[in-house]
Amino acid sequence: RARQSGQGRYQFYEADMSARSLDRFELETDLRAAMQRQEFELFYQPQIDLQTGEVSGAEALIRWNHPTRGRVPPDQFIPIAEETGLIHPIGQWVLEEACRQACLWQEEGHELKVSVNLSALQLNNGDIVDVVRQVLQQTGLSSRWLELELTESYLFENFSRSARVLKRLRLLGVSLALDDFGTGYSSLSYLRRLTLHRLKIDRSFVKGLPDDPGDLAIVNTIIAMAKSLSLEVVAEGVETAQQHQSLLALGCHTSQGYYYAAPESAQAFRHRLATFRRAEQY
Ligand code: C2E
Ligand code: MG
Ligand code: MG
Ligand code: MG
Description:
Blueprint: H1 7-34, E1 40-49, E2 55-66, E3 70-72, H2 74-84, H3 87-107, E4 113-117, H4 120-124, H5 128-139, E5 146-151, H6 152-155, H7 159-172, E6 175-181, H8 188-192, E7 198-201, H9 203-206, H10 213-228, E8 232-235, H11 241-250, E9 254-255, E10 264-265, H12 266-275
Helix pairs in contact: 1-2, 3-5, 5-7
């Protein structure tokens, strides 16, 4: 409380709080309507295979095109969607839309995976395996072209339960990636017991490459550890040629970031695929 700071300051604080909760209330109301109004859109960011220089996949990232606020970033509305339970219909829409898009890529001759972020709540819901199976059936996408990105916070809240869900997802044939890796508390022994395919190194560690010895050591260690566990590594948040070179030298498999491309609309991404020439890249 701002009690000791005097009366004026206290009132200011209260006014600020109510403005914020009003804002939050409005966002929540708008979020409930956003689905019907078709205000959500998926953007796609390419993932580059560092060995071949080719686009090997794309991460689907949700965007909310709000009628008056403009584009609301996911960090601002995913938490509200989680608190209100709206994450379930929204998450299902994301899965459907991403799979539909990946089918189009396949039809156009581009064999690449689509990666979809799953919220912890979606995984805890119990029927996530059925949802994924149904979406694959409805869209006709082969499960080998779908990757699900999970975060550590979920996995280690209820480890044995998550391990079972992951096993069932893996039986469907989808790939599993651990997102923002290094920011949580995964230990080697836990990682070994999960049926994961890839680790995504959090961008906070990529940031200091190649000059920061601490970041370099961390990224090097993650890559070595992943190799020993037969996991692939994706670097996130690659913004410069120096970071790209450094990751290449460290033996990282896959790379993603503004250096290659920012997330873009489905249409722009398809155009990128159609015009992408390996020779002129990286
Ligand atoms: P994330 O899954 O770790 O996604 C990566 C974020 O980093 C994205 O932010 C992306 O735009 C951004 N990014 C990509 N390259 C660079 C770079 O070179 N530099 C920097 N500074 N940033 C880069 P975005 O799209 O705002 O998404 C933020 C977070 O929201 C995601 O983090 C993910 O946790 C969540 N999210 C996004 N879409 C969905 C979704 O469909 N469902 C769920 N449950 N969560 C989602
Ligand atoms: Mg992600
Ligand atoms: Mg991430
Ligand atoms: Mg994240």
